[in-house]
From TrEMBL:
It holds the Pfam family Lectin_C. InterPro entries: C-type_lectin-like, C-type_lectin-like/link_sf, C-type_lectin_CS, CTDL_fold. Keywords: Disulfide bond, Signal. The keyword Cytoplasm does not apply. Residues 1-22 form the signal peptide. Gene3D superfamilies: Mannose-Binding Protein A, subunit A. It comes from Goodea atripinnis. This is C-type lectin domain-containing protein. It comes from the Eukaryota.
Length: 321
Protein backbone atom coordinates (compact mmCIF):
# COMPACT_ATOMS: atom_id res chain seq x y z
CA UNK A 1 0.00 0.00 0.00
CA UNK A 2 1.51 3.35 -1.08
CA UNK A 3 1.61 5.63 1.96
CA UNK A 4 1.47 8.75 -0.23
CA UNK A 5 -1.61 7.42 -1.97
CA UNK A 6 -3.31 6.99 1.39
CA UNK A 7 -2.14 10.31 2.78
CA UNK A 8 -4.18 12.34 0.32
CA UNK A 9 -7.22 10.11 0.26
CA UNK A 10 -10.68 11.19 1.29
CA UNK A 11 -12.80 8.29 2.38
CA UNK A 12 -16.37 7.26 1.67
CA UNK A 13 -18.71 5.70 4.17
CA UNK A 14 -16.69 5.73 7.39
CA UNK A 15 -18.14 5.23 10.86
CA UNK A 16 -16.39 7.31 13.54
CA UNK A 17 -17.14 5.93 17.02
CA UNK A 18 -16.00 6.80 20.50
CA UNK A 19 -13.51 4.34 22.07
CA UNK A 20 -13.26 1.77 24.84
CA UNK A 21 -16.98 1.42 25.41
CA UNK A 22 -18.76 -1.57 26.89
CA UNK A 23 -21.07 -3.39 24.52
CA UNK A 24 -24.80 -3.58 25.04
CA UNK A 25 -26.26 -6.85 23.75
CA UNK A 26 -29.57 -7.37 21.96
CA UNK A 27 -30.83 -10.87 21.18
CA UNK A 28 -32.98 -10.96 18.04
CA UNK A 29 -35.17 -14.06 17.81
CA UNK A 30 -35.70 -13.87 14.05
CA UNK A 31 -34.05 -16.47 11.85
CA UNK A 32 -31.86 -14.89 9.17
CA UNK A 33 -28.76 -15.76 7.18
CA UNK A 34 -25.51 -14.30 8.53
CA UNK A 35 -25.49 -11.53 5.90
CA UNK A 36 -29.12 -10.63 6.61
CA UNK A 37 -28.40 -10.60 10.34
CA UNK A 38 -25.39 -8.36 9.80
CA UNK A 39 -27.48 -5.92 7.74
CA UNK A 40 -30.22 -5.86 10.39
CA UNK A 41 -27.78 -5.18 13.22
CA UNK A 42 -26.07 -2.39 11.29
CA UNK A 43 -29.40 -0.74 10.52
CA UNK A 44 -30.95 -1.11 13.99
CA UNK A 45 -27.93 -1.12 16.32
CA UNK A 46 -24.20 -1.00 15.51
CA UNK A 47 -23.17 -4.48 14.33
CA UNK A 48 -23.27 -8.19 15.06
CA UNK A 49 -21.69 -8.87 18.43
CA UNK A 50 -17.90 -9.14 18.86
CA UNK A 51 -16.64 -11.41 21.67
CA UNK A 52 -13.10 -10.56 22.75
CA UNK A 53 -12.90 -12.00 26.27
CA UNK A 54 -14.35 -14.41 28.78
CA UNK A 55 -16.19 -11.41 30.27
CA UNK A 56 -17.87 -10.74 26.90
CA UNK A 57 -18.81 -14.42 26.60
CA UNK A 58 -20.23 -14.43 30.12
CA UNK A 59 -22.46 -11.46 29.23
CA UNK A 60 -23.67 -13.29 26.12
CA UNK A 61 -24.49 -16.35 28.23
CA UNK A 62 -26.50 -14.18 30.60
CA UNK A 63 -28.57 -12.80 27.74
CA UNK A 64 -29.18 -16.25 26.25
CA UNK A 65 -30.17 -17.74 29.59
CA UNK A 66 -31.56 -21.26 29.20
CA UNK A 67 -32.00 -20.90 25.43
CA UNK A 68 -30.42 -23.92 23.70
CA UNK A 69 -30.59 -22.53 20.15
CA UNK A 70 -27.57 -21.27 18.19
CA UNK A 71 -27.16 -17.54 17.50
CA UNK A 72 -25.08 -15.80 14.86
CA UNK A 73 -22.19 -13.69 16.17
CA UNK A 74 -20.01 -11.36 14.11
CA UNK A 75 -17.28 -13.85 13.19
CA UNK A 76 -16.86 -14.99 9.57
CA UNK A 77 -14.25 -16.77 7.45
CA UNK A 78 -11.70 -14.80 5.44
CA UNK A 79 -9.80 -17.53 3.62
CA UNK A 80 -7.30 -15.45 1.60
CA UNK A 81 -5.96 -13.22 4.35
CA UNK A 82 -2.22 -13.90 3.85
CA UNK A 83 0.10 -11.21 5.21
CA UNK A 84 3.62 -10.61 6.47
CA UNK A 85 4.74 -10.36 10.09
CA UNK A 86 6.81 -7.27 9.30
CA UNK A 87 4.48 -4.31 8.73
CA UNK A 88 6.75 -1.33 8.24
CA UNK A 89 5.87 1.79 6.28
CA UNK A 90 7.90 2.01 3.08
CA UNK A 91 9.38 -1.49 3.40
CA UNK A 92 7.34 -2.95 0.52
CA UNK A 93 7.25 -1.32 -2.88
CA UNK A 94 4.14 -1.67 -5.01
CA UNK A 95 3.20 -5.35 -5.40
CA UNK A 96 6.06 -6.73 -3.29
CA UNK A 97 3.87 -7.71 -0.33
CA UNK A 98 1.75 -9.79 -2.74
CA UNK A 99 4.60 -12.04 -3.90
CA UNK A 100 3.66 -15.73 -3.63
CA UNK A 101 6.08 -18.56 -4.48
CA UNK A 102 4.03 -21.61 -3.53
CA UNK A 103 5.13 -25.16 -4.10
CA UNK A 104 2.93 -27.31 -6.36
CA UNK A 105 -0.41 -27.96 -4.66
CA UNK A 106 0.10 -25.24 -2.05
CA UNK A 107 -1.43 -23.67 -0.07
CA UNK A 108 -3.54 -26.68 0.88
CA UNK A 109 -4.47 -26.50 4.59
CA UNK A 110 -7.65 -24.45 4.32
CA UNK A 111 -9.32 -26.16 7.29
CA UNK A 112 -7.30 -24.54 10.08
CA UNK A 113 -7.89 -21.27 11.93
CA UNK A 114 -4.28 -20.10 11.62
CA UNK A 115 -1.69 -21.09 9.06
CA UNK A 116 1.94 -20.09 8.68
CA UNK A 117 4.39 -20.42 5.81
CA UNK A 118 7.68 -22.25 5.57
CA UNK A 119 10.22 -22.32 2.79
CA UNK A 120 12.66 -25.03 1.74
CA UNK A 121 16.03 -25.23 -0.05
CA UNK A 122 14.17 -25.61 -3.37
CA UNK A 123 12.94 -21.98 -2.84
CA UNK A 124 9.25 -22.93 -2.75
CA UNK A 125 6.74 -22.24 0.02
CA UNK A 126 4.21 -24.38 1.89
CA UNK A 127 1.54 -23.57 4.46
CA UNK A 128 1.45 -25.50 7.70
CA UNK A 129 0.00 -25.43 11.22
CA UNK A 130 1.64 -22.61 13.16
CA UNK A 131 2.18 -24.65 16.33
CA UNK A 132 4.54 -27.06 14.56
CA UNK A 133 8.22 -26.54 15.39
CA UNK A 134 10.70 -25.62 12.66
CA UNK A 135 13.96 -23.73 12.24
CA UNK A 136 13.32 -20.20 10.96
CA UNK A 137 14.80 -17.22 9.15
CA UNK A 138 15.07 -13.79 10.77
CA UNK A 139 15.54 -10.49 8.95
CA UNK A 140 17.77 -7.70 10.23
CA UNK A 141 17.06 -4.21 8.92
CA UNK A 142 20.41 -2.61 9.70
CA UNK A 143 22.53 -3.93 8.15
CA UNK A 144 20.10 -5.68 5.81
CA UNK A 145 20.62 -9.44 5.99
CA UNK A 146 19.03 -12.78 6.85
CA UNK A 147 19.93 -15.11 9.72
CA UNK A 148 19.07 -18.80 9.84
CA UNK A 149 18.16 -20.02 13.34
CA UNK A 150 18.38 -23.81 13.62
CA UNK A 151 16.74 -24.00 17.05
CA UNK A 152 13.26 -25.26 16.13
CA UNK A 153 10.30 -23.23 17.45
CA UNK A 154 6.64 -22.79 16.62
CA UNK A 155 5.88 -19.81 14.41
CA UNK A 156 4.75 -17.48 17.21
CA UNK A 157 7.85 -18.17 19.33
CA UNK A 158 10.03 -17.74 16.24
CA UNK A 159 8.39 -14.36 15.59
CA UNK A 160 9.06 -13.25 19.17
CA UNK A 161 12.67 -14.43 18.96
CA UNK A 162 13.31 -12.53 15.71
CA UNK A 163 11.70 -9.36 17.04
CA UNK A 164 13.79 -9.53 20.22
CA UNK A 165 17.12 -10.25 18.51
CA UNK A 166 16.75 -8.92 14.96
CA UNK A 167 13.96 -6.97 13.22
CA UNK A 168 11.34 -9.63 12.46
CA UNK A 169 10.75 -12.95 10.73
CA UNK A 170 11.92 -12.77 7.13
CA UNK A 171 9.74 -11.18 4.48
CA UNK A 172 10.30 -12.05 0.83
CA UNK A 173 9.79 -9.14 -1.56
CA UNK A 174 11.33 -10.57 -4.74
CA UNK A 175 12.90 -13.67 -6.25
CA UNK A 176 16.42 -12.49 -5.40
CA UNK A 177 15.60 -12.36 -1.68
CA UNK A 178 13.90 -15.74 -1.92
CA UNK A 179 17.02 -17.26 -3.46
CA UNK A 180 19.21 -15.69 -0.76
CA UNK A 181 17.11 -17.39 1.93
CA UNK A 182 17.14 -20.77 0.19
CA UNK A 183 20.96 -20.70 0.15
CA UNK A 184 21.27 -20.46 3.94
CA UNK A 185 18.70 -23.09 5.02
CA UNK A 186 19.06 -26.87 4.95
CA UNK A 187 15.45 -27.92 5.65
CA UNK A 188 11.94 -26.51 6.00
CA UNK A 189 12.11 -23.15 7.84
CA UNK A 190 9.52 -20.59 8.92
CA UNK A 191 9.35 -17.23 7.16
CA UNK A 192 7.16 -14.29 8.13
CA UNK A 193 3.99 -15.02 6.16
CA UNK A 194 0.86 -16.16 8.01
CA UNK A 195 -2.91 -16.20 7.75
CA UNK A 196 -5.58 -15.40 10.31
CA UNK A 197 -8.64 -17.01 8.80
CA UNK A 198 -11.38 -15.31 10.79
CA UNK A 199 -12.57 -11.72 10.99
CA UNK A 200 -15.22 -9.97 13.07
CA UNK A 201 -17.96 -8.02 11.34
CA UNK A 202 -16.68 -4.78 12.92
CA UNK A 203 -13.31 -5.26 11.18
CA UNK A 204 -11.26 -6.78 14.01
CA UNK A 205 -9.15 -9.85 13.25
CA UNK A 206 -9.35 -13.02 15.31
CA UNK A 207 -5.63 -13.30 15.94
CA UNK A 208 -3.60 -16.24 17.16
CA UNK A 209 -3.45 -14.60 20.59
CA UNK A 210 -7.14 -13.57 20.68
CA UNK A 211 -9.84 -15.03 22.89
CA UNK A 212 -11.80 -17.84 21.22
CA UNK A 213 -14.36 -20.39 22.35
CA UNK A 214 -14.47 -23.04 19.60
CA UNK A 215 -16.39 -26.28 19.83
CA UNK A 216 -13.39 -28.61 19.68
CA UNK A 217 -15.40 -31.54 18.31
CA UNK A 218 -16.05 -29.87 14.95
CA UNK A 219 -13.89 -29.60 11.84
CA UNK A 220 -12.75 -26.07 11.04
CA UNK A 221 -13.89 -24.99 7.59
CA UNK A 222 -13.34 -21.34 6.71
CA UNK A 223 -14.49 -20.81 3.13
CA UNK A 224 -18.08 -19.44 3.00
CA UNK A 225 -18.58 -20.23 6.67
CA UNK A 226 -19.68 -18.05 9.59
CA UNK A 227 -19.92 -18.61 13.34
CA UNK A 228 -22.74 -19.15 15.81
CA UNK A 229 -22.60 -19.38 19.57
CA UNK A 230 -24.51 -21.32 22.17
CA UNK A 231 -24.08 -20.84 25.89
CA UNK A 232 -21.28 -23.42 25.72
CA UNK A 233 -19.16 -22.87 22.60
CA UNK A 234 -18.84 -21.44 19.06
CA UNK A 235 -19.87 -23.47 16.00
CA UNK A 236 -18.94 -23.10 12.35
CA UNK A 237 -21.96 -23.02 10.03
CA UNK A 238 -22.66 -22.19 6.35
CA UNK A 239 -23.32 -18.44 6.15
CA UNK A 240 -26.52 -19.11 4.19
CA UNK A 241 -28.08 -21.04 7.09
CA UNK A 242 -30.64 -19.19 9.19
CA UNK A 243 -30.35 -18.61 12.93
CA UNK A 244 -31.42 -15.96 15.42
CA UNK A 245 -28.60 -13.56 16.22
CA UNK A 246 -27.05 -11.14 18.69
CA UNK A 247 -26.53 -7.45 17.91
CA UNK A 248 -24.47 -4.98 19.90
CA UNK A 249 -24.22 -1.28 20.47
CA UNK A 250 -22.39 0.99 22.88
CA UNK A 251 -24.79 2.75 25.26
CA UNK A 252 -22.26 5.42 26.23
CA UNK A 253 -21.46 6.62 22.71
CA UNK A 254 -20.54 10.29 22.85
CA UNK A 255 -20.71 10.72 19.12
CA UNK A 256 -21.25 8.53 16.10
CA UNK A 257 -20.64 10.20 12.79
CA UNK A 258 -20.80 8.98 9.21
CA UNK A 259 -18.25 10.72 7.04
CA UNK A 260 -19.05 10.70 3.32
CA UNK A 261 -16.04 11.82 1.33
CA UNK A 262 -14.39 11.36 -2.04
CA UNK A 263 -11.71 8.73 -2.66
CA UNK A 264 -8.77 9.49 -4.90
CA UNK A 265 -6.29 6.75 -5.74
CA UNK A 266 -2.89 7.33 -7.32
CA UNK A 267 -2.72 4.09 -9.33
CA UNK A 268 -5.37 2.40 -11.47
CA UNK A 269 -4.21 -1.04 -10.28
CA UNK A 270 -5.02 -0.35 -6.62
CA UNK A 271 -8.07 -2.37 -5.56
CA UNK A 272 -9.68 -0.31 -2.79
CA UNK A 273 -12.05 -3.08 -1.70
CA UNK A 274 -9.19 -5.57 -1.25
CA UNK A 275 -7.00 -3.00 0.53
CA UNK A 276 -9.65 -1.42 2.76
CA UNK A 277 -8.20 -3.01 5.93
CA UNK A 278 -4.78 -1.56 5.16
CA UNK A 279 -6.35 1.84 4.45
CA UNK A 280 -8.24 1.77 7.74
CA UNK A 281 -5.04 0.78 9.57
CA UNK A 282 -3.21 3.73 7.97
CA UNK A 283 -6.02 6.08 8.96
CA UNK A 284 -5.92 4.89 12.56
CA UNK A 285 -2.17 5.40 12.70
CA UNK A 286 -2.57 8.93 11.31
CA UNK A 287 -5.16 9.71 13.98
CA UNK A 288 -2.79 8.43 16.66
CA UNK A 289 -0.11 10.85 15.45
CA UNK A 290 -2.62 13.68 15.94
CA UNK A 291 -3.59 12.60 19.45
CA UNK A 292 -6.79 10.79 18.43
CA UNK A 293 -5.63 7.22 18.96
CA UNK A 294 -8.72 6.25 20.97
CA UNK A 295 -11.19 6.98 18.17
CA UNK A 296 -12.66 3.81 16.64
CA UNK A 297 -13.09 3.65 12.86
CA UNK A 298 -15.01 1.19 10.73
CA UNK A 299 -16.26 1.08 7.16
CA UNK A 300 -19.96 1.40 6.43
CA UNK A 301 -21.03 -1.01 3.71
CA UNK A 302 -23.46 0.14 1.02
CA UNK A 303 -26.61 -1.78 0.04
CA UNK A 304 -24.64 -3.82 -2.53
CA UNK A 305 -22.12 -4.92 0.09
CA UNK A 306 -19.32 -2.69 -1.20
CA UNK A 307 -17.58 0.17 0.55
CA UNK A 308 -16.34 2.16 -2.44
CA UNK A 309 -18.17 3.29 -5.56
CA UNK A 310 -16.58 4.71 -8.69
CA UNK A 311 -17.62 8.23 -9.61
CA UNK A 312 -16.79 10.24 -12.72
CA UNK A 313 -14.70 13.39 -12.38
CA UNK A 314 -17.70 15.51 -13.44
CA UNK A 315 -19.76 14.07 -10.57
CA UNK A 316 -16.89 14.64 -8.19
CA UNK A 317 -16.69 18.32 -9.14
CA UNK A 318 -20.43 18.73 -8.47
CA UNK A 319 -20.03 17.17 -5.02
CA UNK A 320 -17.32 19.70 -4.19
CA UNK A 321 -19.38 22.73 -5.17
Amino acid sequence: MDENAIRFMLFFGLWVLSPCLSQEYHVVNERKSWTEAQRYCREMYIDLVTINSTEDMDKVKQHLGSNTDEFWIGLFGDVNNWKWSLEKDGFYEKGQADLRLWNTGEPNNHDYNFLCVDTQPSSRWSDYMCNDKRPFVCYNDSPSNYSYVKNAMNWTDAQQYCRANYTDLASVRNVSENNAISQIIDQYAWIGMYKESWRWSDGQRLRMTSYSNWNVSQSVNVNNFCVTTKTTAWNIRPCSSTYPFICSRSPDIIKRQVVKLIVSKSGSSLDLEVNQDAILHQLSRSLQKHGLGEVKLKWRKQSDGKTFHLKKKEDTKKDRV
